[in-house]
Specification:
Blueprint: E1 5-9, E2 20-21, H1 32-46, E3 50-54, E4 56-58, H2 64-69, E5 75-77, E6 85-87, H3 88-100, E7 107-110, H4 118-129, E8 136-138, H5 139-143, H6 148-155, E9 159-160, H7 163-167, H8 178-188
Parallel strand pairs: 1-3, 2-9, 3-7, 4-6, 5-8
């Protein structure tokens, strides 16, 4: 039995003004990068691949704790704006579960259980490290200094439903929210 998987992004859903998206939600990408992903995803699915729509990835070496320690963390205020995330270890768990139960053509949202404002993640990382959080900056002000790629992340606001990985693949997330993920990273350091 052959298995193939394509790692895509939740950006393919576009902006939902904080609303929920599931695997069957129509795709409405808002950036060129996300539009290219939609095309690539379709090609891979046509070949019998599994598609994994990944939320914002974090883990050892790439996380809010590291940003705080390096002085790069920012608390940006954009009321009502949330991001979904996923710890790299949970991505591996989802892929392994898919390999154990192949379903060519299946699409899975890969994220934790809690979409949250990025500002909350930075605040929590500072709390874990015993540091004073950076000042809160309004989005309009922070946007002026963002890269084009950074702005594309902030253009979309959605909550990603992960029930399919749990119900169909039997996945139990090791890090169901950013707090548990960041605490584990800190303990491992």
């Amino acid at each position: 039995c052959h298995w193939i998987g394509y790692l895509s992004i939740t950006g393919v859903y576009g902006n939902r003004d904080g609303g929920w998206v599931k695997e069957g939600t129509p795709l409405e990408p808002t950036s060129d990068r996300a539009r290219y992903r939609v095309k690539a995803e379709k090609r891979w699915l046509d070949l019998g691949s599994h598609a994994f729509r990944l939320a914002g990835i974090y883990g050892p070496g790439r996380n809010a704790l590291r940003d705080v320690k390096k002085g790069r963390a920012k608390r940006i205020d954009k009321p009502g704006h949330v991001f979904s995330r996923i710890h790299v270890d949970d991505i591996t768990s989802v892929r392994k579960a898919s390999m154990a139960k192949p379903d060519p053509g299946a699409i899975y949202n890969v994220c934790d259980d809690e979409a949250a404002p990025p500002m909350d993640v930075v605040t929590y990382a500072c709390e874990l490290l015993g540091q004073t959080p950076p000042d809160i900056r309004p989005f309009a002000q922070a946007c002026e200094e963002m890269s084009v790629m950074g702005r594309t992340f902030w253009a979309d606001n959605k909550r990603v439903d992960n029930s399919r990985i749990k119900n169909e693949l039997g996945v139990k997330l090791r890090y169901p929210d950013y707090r548990r993920g960041l605490r584990a990273i800190l303990e491992e350091d």
